[in-house]
């Protein structure tokens, strides 16, 4: 019964993505992680100075984890860490400053982290944005491509040894249901970088969120059997400062039904805390695996996936194409 209702909620989008979806699914979804499930464990959350990311830090801390709260603005990082510590006395929150879209900053920060810690049990690539105008990073990459795809990929490469140190660890790419509107194609570098015509922030958002899902799936395949589980996920529609700024009309129409930030953070936290087995696609929402394409869409073209992975490798300047090596 749960399965049929769950699928119907998912396909209806409006019912599944709002708080109605999680409200109903809670009746049958898998159990919460045990109290203190993450005691002695260490997690990095990017984009943790606002919205879903900040809520995630609180949820991990409540499970006993040491949480590295990463943002690009030191003052905001300090404020968010202070808020979590004040609401959860005794919690271990480490402040981290890194602009995920700046590949040099990612290299410097990951090198620094590797000198400070021995192991990492979770890494959530949550940082995200949807700007109205095209902007470039110091390396000349379009900012959404860099923040959603290139930075997280490079960060994963750089932190692989730390993630492989414990018996098991999880990496989550926080995507969006918006990715369903942008099936992966053999995008040229100009298209990846949104140089193909007038900039449309929503279109670039959907494309880069699709790229995250494909990348998560490729990483999951690559790391099968290594103890590192990789997932894509989407949070549903969540009331956050990001939504208020980027989509004010959408927000005012859907406001009564938008999820609370902790609800939006739930599946990513649950994935890291429980590391469930995952099938190809590896895309999750509301503690269940979801399709990466709907029936009326064609399946992912494997040649487009290979071309995309090679482009990401080249654009991040990773010395070797980690993903192809394992496939
Ligand atoms: N809210 C939703 O309904 C929804 C739906 C689908 C998917 N998502 C995804 O969920 C994630 C969180 O979204 P949200 O709604 O919580 O957004 P939000 O309130 O705007 O929070 C985004 C966070 O990412 C940070 N960030 C942006 N660019 C960064 C960079 N280059 N380096 C480091 N941090 C950076 C922001 O920091 P600053 O404050 O410094 O900008 C902020 O802390 C995003 O990936 C988003 O795409 C959200």
Automatic annotation (TrEMBL):
- UniProt xrefs under InterPro entries: NAD(P)-bd_dom_sf, SDR_fam, SDR_member_12
**Pfam families linked:** adh_short (PF00106)
Q: Which Gene3D superfamilies match?
A: NAD(P)-binding Rossmann-like Domain
The superkingdom of the source organism is: Bacteria
Q: Which PANTHER family match?
A: DEHYDROGENASE/REDUCTASE SDR FAMILY MEMBER 12 (PTHR44656), DEHYDROGENASE_REDUCTASE SDR FAMILY MEMBER 12 (PTHR44656:SF7)
Tell me what this protein is called.
Answer: Oxidoreductase
Source organism of the structure: Mycolicibacterium poriferae
